[in-house]
Amino acid sequence: MPAPVCSIIILTYRRPEDLAIALESTGAQRLGDPFEVIVVDNSPEGSAQTQVERFAATASHRVIYVSEKTPGISSARNAGLGVARGELIAFLDDDQVADPEWLERMIAAQRANDAEAVFGWVEPYTKVEAPPYAEIFFDPLSRRFEIPSGRVPPKLIAKLGTNNSLFRASALDGKKTFDPTLNLTGGEDSAVIKKIAERGGTLVWCKEGRVREHVPPDRLRLGFLLERRFSSGQLRSRHFYAGPSRSYRQLAKWVAIGAVQATGGALLASSTLVVAPVFARKMLAEAAGGLGKVFFLDRFVVERYRRPPVEVVQPTPAEAAAEKTSAGG
Length: 329
Prior knowledge:
Helices cover 40% and strands 16% of the residues. It is α/β, with parallel strands linked by helices. The protein has two domains: 6-217, Spore Coat Polysaccharide Biosynthesis Protein SpsA, Chain A (Alpha-Beta Complex); 222-300, no CATH class. Helix 7 (222-238) packs antiparallel against helix 8 and helix 8 (248-272) runs antiparallel to helix 9 (277-294). The termini are far apart.
């Protein structure tokens, strides 16, 4: 099998239905060049292995299953990069569905601009009836820049992420690309993107490279939105709190911005809750983002990707006896 032009990395954690649709969308790609799909399963039990191997048996492109038992988004991303062979690396979430022309258009944008990274359109959708204020929930899960395709304006770099993205492999650092200290909080992709931008790398927006992202009912709750915005605010301040980008001057700036954002958002939310409930919820989300910028220290950190404790299933007496007999020969 010829070397792939692109490696598509999909991280998954106990989402078999969404993963099936994501995999099917990779099989429908109209790219003439060879590519491969790498599925990194971050569940401790390797729950996706049979599903991925079944898909691989009939796929026209190479499909690789990787089990990464270290919990966390950075470890999973790095595991995928460790086996990727493509000169280009694409990231697709396991709850995303790529248009048939997605990969072709993303690669074309990379080649036309000699880009280090390309970012495409993310359109949220739900399988249930969405509340009238659903747009405020969709906003942090989407990427819908109403600007022409081309270089990403500096003011939008902070809104970029690896969901629906394509990188030149040489712009990354293989298995060491994503910071494992961000395994549970997230923000590992933003850190890499900022690093590429700071060294002068070309970041490109590809409006035509489209995917749809499934938003399940539990993400249409106000509590989820507020936690997500609070966490995102924390990551903005923490970027300057520790690590290679440490800058207490920048940190102080973002804490001050957060304080103003939190105060203004809370006041507007409380004063419009009755007359404009949708706007009030949006302002409450703004306030949560501001609070995150202020309360950025470790003791307040939201760990988005912390796994629930593994349930220990005790064997029945018969199973225990059988195991003891087997062990004793």
